[in-house]
Queue: 2 jobs
Job 1
Amino acid sequence: AQKVTQAQTEISVVEKEDVTLDCVYETRDTTYYLFWYKQPPSGELVFLIRRNSFDEQNEISGRYSWNFQKSTSSFNFTITASQVVDSAVYFCALSKNDYKLSFGAGTTVTVRA
Amino acid sequence: DTGVSQDPRHKITKRGQNVTFRCDPISEHNRLYWYRQTLGQGPEFLTYFQNEAQLEKSRLLSDRFSAERPKGSFSTLEIQRTEQGDSAMYLCASSARAITGELFFGEGSRLTVL
């Protein structure tokens, strides 16, 4: 069985602060994929990143960065210098293929001006 | 707008009624997915189509649920004899070949069963 745990239910920060979202996963598969999606108030899930289990290289995309650590089964996401537009629910997800994603419960990020 | 579109966006129905949701994927995408999201939770996988073939169904998809994708274009999700527990957001997504693994989601169809 696959399971994703996002222990932080809500995070509130002031604009320009950094915010890190934790994601811990469980799987027995040796090959798997990890994802992050953003769900703004409009409701449409927006893809942010996919990593496969063989690629532990950290990634940076603009103000977003991801830290994948297989040893601790974690795939954490950091938003640097947060902005009000970053306010959304962020979901971490796990899949052994590319379509059946198991999502965590999500972390609601509120960035205050 | 060339994204995934879903219709209706909101549906309120009485228990026992049938409802149908429609999803129009991005035109060049051959893969289509249905997920369900309840309040405060992440989406849960329901089913997956590659072209017109339904390749996988979740155990969440009881006998009252049926999904189709005739001709490999739009898809419908029908719920018969709705129950209050069916109240949720029904999300449709589509993708092309799995290069980046990106699923493109629609804005969802919210179902409220009274």
Job 2
Amino acid sequence: GQQLNQSPQSMFIQEGEDVSMNCTSSSIFNTWLWYKQDPGEGPVLLIALYKAGELTSNGRLTAQFGITRKDSFLNISASIPSDVGIYFCAGPKSNAGNMLTFGGGTRLMVKP
Amino acid sequence: SAVISQKPSRDICQRGTSLTIQCQVDSQVTMMFWYRQQPGQSLTLIATANQGSEATYESGFVIDKFPISRPNLTFSTLTVSNMSPEDSSIYLCSVSPGQETQYFGPGTRLLVL
């Protein structure tokens, strides 16, 4: 089945540093989604990507849909303490309409 | 995006009992889903809640253990039946208004003793 491999699994960075995380798959995806889950909350959609090569920003966040359609990355610039949380990539299961498969998540910790 | 609420937000239950979790959306949506997130893990889809028909379960999940209701386009329930400590997880509902995106509720944190 389709699997999303997310890396790194965790990151511990200093406030103000830039962050980069990525998601890869052996299968082609037509949509890439990036979510953030704060402690004790449900995942919140950050960025949705619908076209290969697409580069989309949301404030300090930038995400790109890889040209091969098998990968995506999420960058966070000038990290702040509230960026702490778990970041998940997700994509629709093949031939399954709106059903999603999720990566394992990247746990981000920011030291003030 | 839709506003989604879940009840209860958390619960502590005894093994062998059942808990019903409610999910309410502020607008009509065709697609609603239930996920489980075990401690320290990613999200795993339990089932798609279909309005007016039986839910569609993923491999490894069965109706007897996780009965689901979907009486209308804004509401669904998930029951965790005959609970054991292994059922301790966060249970999340989500909705999909289209374009293959999903929006999640705040989750229900379940601890089974």
